[in-house]
Amino acid sequence: FFFFFFDRMLRAKKINIGIDERSRTETAAGLCCLLAETYTLYLKTQKYHWNVTGPQFQSLHLMFEGQYQELALATDAIAERIRALGVYAPATFGEFTELSTIKEERGVPTSDAMITNLTNGHETLARTARHLFSQAEKADDASTADLATARMNIHEKSAWMLRSLFVDQKINEL
After folding, report:
1. Alpha carbon distance 142, 148 (integer Å)
2. Cα–Cα distance, 53 to 48 (Å, whole number)
3. Cα–Cα distance between 68 and 50 in angstroms, integer?
4. Most buried of the four, 64, 80, 126, 127, by CB within 10 Å?
Protein backbone atom coordinates (compact mmCIF):
# COMPACT_ATOMS: atom_id res chain seq x y z
CA PHE A 1 0.00 0.00 0.00
CA PHE A 2 2.66 2.51 0.95
CA PHE A 3 4.65 1.88 -2.25
CA PHE A 4 1.46 2.44 -4.23
CA PHE A 5 0.80 5.71 -2.46
CA PHE A 6 4.42 6.91 -2.43
CA ASP A 7 4.52 6.59 -6.21
CA ARG A 8 1.47 8.83 -6.47
CA MET A 9 3.08 11.50 -4.29
CA LEU A 10 6.31 11.52 -6.30
CA ARG A 11 4.42 12.52 -9.43
CA ALA A 12 2.33 15.17 -7.69
CA LYS A 13 3.25 18.82 -8.06
CA LYS A 14 4.20 20.91 -5.03
CA ILE A 15 1.23 22.81 -3.65
CA ASN A 16 0.75 25.30 -0.83
CA ILE A 17 -2.82 25.29 0.49
CA GLY A 18 -2.00 25.69 4.17
CA ILE A 19 -1.73 21.97 4.98
CA ASP A 20 1.76 20.57 5.46
CA GLU A 21 2.94 17.83 3.09
CA ARG A 22 2.86 15.02 5.66
CA SER A 23 -0.71 15.86 6.66
CA ARG A 24 -1.76 16.11 3.01
CA THR A 25 -0.14 12.74 2.33
CA GLU A 26 -1.86 11.02 5.26
CA THR A 27 -5.22 12.58 4.49
CA ALA A 28 -4.95 11.74 0.79
CA ALA A 29 -4.10 8.12 1.70
CA GLY A 30 -7.28 7.95 3.77
CA LEU A 31 -9.24 9.46 0.87
CA CYS A 32 -7.77 6.87 -1.51
CA CYS A 33 -9.09 4.10 0.75
CA LEU A 34 -12.47 5.81 0.98
CA LEU A 35 -12.57 6.09 -2.82
CA ALA A 36 -11.65 2.43 -3.32
CA GLU A 37 -14.27 1.24 -0.85
CA THR A 38 -16.90 3.56 -2.30
CA TYR A 39 -16.23 2.32 -5.82
CA THR A 40 -16.27 -1.32 -4.74
CA LEU A 41 -19.59 -0.84 -2.94
CA TYR A 42 -20.91 1.02 -5.99
CA LEU A 43 -20.15 -1.97 -8.22
CA LYS A 44 -21.63 -4.42 -5.73
CA THR A 45 -24.79 -2.33 -5.37
CA GLN A 46 -25.22 -2.03 -9.13
CA LYS A 47 -24.71 -5.79 -9.51
CA TYR A 48 -27.44 -6.38 -6.94
CA HIS A 49 -29.72 -3.86 -8.65
CA TRP A 50 -29.42 -5.81 -11.89
CA ASN A 51 -29.76 -9.26 -10.33
CA VAL A 52 -32.13 -9.02 -7.35
CA THR A 53 -35.10 -11.41 -7.36
CA GLY A 54 -37.87 -12.37 -4.99
CA PRO A 55 -40.97 -10.90 -3.39
CA GLN A 56 -39.22 -7.59 -2.58
CA PHE A 57 -37.88 -7.21 -6.13
CA GLN A 58 -39.45 -3.85 -6.97
CA SER A 59 -38.58 -2.10 -3.70
CA LEU A 60 -35.04 -3.50 -3.57
CA HIS A 61 -34.43 -2.80 -7.26
CA LEU A 62 -35.36 0.86 -6.72
CA MET A 63 -33.49 1.17 -3.41
CA PHE A 64 -30.32 -0.31 -4.89
CA GLU A 65 -30.60 2.00 -7.90
CA GLY A 66 -30.77 5.08 -5.69
CA GLN A 67 -27.84 3.86 -3.64
CA TYR A 68 -25.57 3.04 -6.57
CA GLN A 69 -26.34 6.39 -8.21
CA GLU A 70 -25.40 8.22 -5.01
CA LEU A 71 -22.20 6.18 -4.71
CA ALA A 72 -21.26 7.00 -8.32
CA LEU A 73 -21.55 10.72 -7.59
CA ALA A 74 -19.54 10.29 -4.40
CA THR A 75 -16.61 8.71 -6.22
CA ASP A 76 -16.15 11.88 -8.26
CA ALA A 77 -16.23 14.17 -5.21
CA ILE A 78 -13.75 11.98 -3.34
CA ALA A 79 -11.37 11.70 -6.33
CA GLU A 80 -11.47 15.46 -6.85
CA ARG A 81 -10.58 16.04 -3.20
CA ILE A 82 -7.60 13.68 -3.58
CA ARG A 83 -6.47 15.73 -6.58
CA ALA A 84 -6.94 19.01 -4.67
CA LEU A 85 -4.47 17.66 -2.12
CA GLY A 86 -1.90 17.15 -4.87
CA VAL A 87 -2.15 13.38 -5.28
CA TYR A 88 -3.23 11.26 -8.22
CA ALA A 89 -6.42 9.33 -7.47
CA PRO A 90 -6.49 5.54 -7.87
CA ALA A 91 -8.66 4.61 -10.84
CA THR A 92 -8.26 0.95 -11.76
CA PHE A 93 -9.94 -2.21 -10.54
CA GLY A 94 -6.56 -3.48 -9.38
CA GLU A 95 -5.87 -0.36 -7.32
CA PHE A 96 -9.35 -0.40 -5.83
CA THR A 97 -9.02 -4.09 -4.94
CA GLU A 98 -5.68 -3.43 -3.26
CA LEU A 99 -6.97 -0.48 -1.24
CA SER A 100 -10.49 -1.66 -0.31
CA THR A 101 -11.50 -3.78 2.65
CA ILE A 102 -14.85 -4.37 0.94
CA LYS A 103 -14.44 -7.40 -1.28
CA GLU A 104 -16.19 -8.54 -4.43
CA GLU A 105 -18.00 -11.85 -4.49
CA ARG A 106 -18.79 -14.27 -7.25
CA GLY A 107 -22.28 -15.40 -8.07
CA VAL A 108 -25.60 -13.90 -7.13
CA PRO A 109 -26.58 -14.05 -3.47
CA THR A 110 -30.15 -14.20 -2.19
CA SER A 111 -31.92 -10.90 -1.68
CA ASP A 112 -31.49 -11.26 2.10
CA ALA A 113 -27.75 -11.82 1.65
CA MET A 114 -27.62 -8.79 -0.66
CA ILE A 115 -29.20 -6.64 2.04
CA THR A 116 -26.77 -7.97 4.64
CA ASN A 117 -23.75 -7.48 2.38
CA LEU A 118 -24.74 -3.92 1.52
CA THR A 119 -25.43 -3.13 5.16
CA ASN A 120 -21.96 -4.35 6.06
CA GLY A 121 -20.49 -2.33 3.19
CA HIS A 122 -22.16 0.89 4.31
CA GLU A 123 -21.07 0.28 7.89
CA THR A 124 -17.49 -0.24 6.67
CA LEU A 125 -17.64 3.02 4.75
CA ALA A 126 -19.03 4.85 7.78
CA ARG A 127 -16.05 3.61 9.83
CA THR A 128 -13.59 4.55 7.08
CA ALA A 129 -15.11 8.04 6.82
CA ARG A 130 -15.01 8.42 10.61
CA HIS A 131 -11.29 7.57 10.65
CA LEU A 132 -10.71 9.99 7.76
CA PHE A 133 -12.58 12.72 9.66
CA SER A 134 -10.20 12.27 12.59
CA GLN A 135 -7.18 12.52 10.26
CA ALA A 136 -8.59 15.61 8.57
CA GLU A 137 -9.29 17.34 11.87
CA LYS A 138 -5.72 16.75 13.03
CA ALA A 139 -4.47 18.19 9.74
CA ASP A 140 -6.79 21.22 10.03
CA ASP A 141 -8.27 20.15 6.68
CA ALA A 142 -11.84 21.41 6.91
CA SER A 143 -12.72 20.47 3.33
CA THR A 144 -11.85 16.81 3.82
CA ALA A 145 -13.50 16.82 7.25
CA ASP A 146 -16.71 18.13 5.66
CA LEU A 147 -16.59 15.47 2.96
CA ALA A 148 -15.97 12.74 5.57
CA THR A 149 -18.88 14.00 7.70
CA ALA A 150 -21.23 13.95 4.73
CA ARG A 151 -20.11 10.43 3.81
CA MET A 152 -20.60 9.18 7.39
CA ASN A 153 -24.13 10.56 7.42
CA ILE A 154 -25.04 8.96 4.10
CA HIS A 155 -23.56 5.55 4.97
CA GLU A 156 -25.07 5.43 8.46
CA LYS A 157 -28.48 6.29 7.01
CA SER A 158 -28.15 3.75 4.19
CA ALA A 159 -27.14 1.01 6.64
CA TRP A 160 -30.10 1.86 8.87
CA MET A 161 -32.53 1.72 5.94
CA LEU A 162 -31.15 -1.65 4.85
CA ARG A 163 -31.25 -3.05 8.41
CA SER A 164 -34.86 -1.90 8.67
CA LEU A 165 -35.85 -4.33 5.92
CA PHE A 166 -35.44 -7.18 8.40
CA VAL A 167 -38.42 -7.31 10.71
CA ASP A 168 -37.56 -8.68 14.16
CA GLN A 169 -34.29 -10.20 12.96
CA LYS A 170 -30.75 -9.40 13.86
CA ILE A 171 -28.73 -8.59 10.74
CA ASN A 172 -25.81 -10.74 11.87
CA GLU A 173 -27.99 -13.85 12.16
CA LEU A 174 -28.45 -14.15 8.39
Report:
1. 10
2. 9
3. 11
4. 64
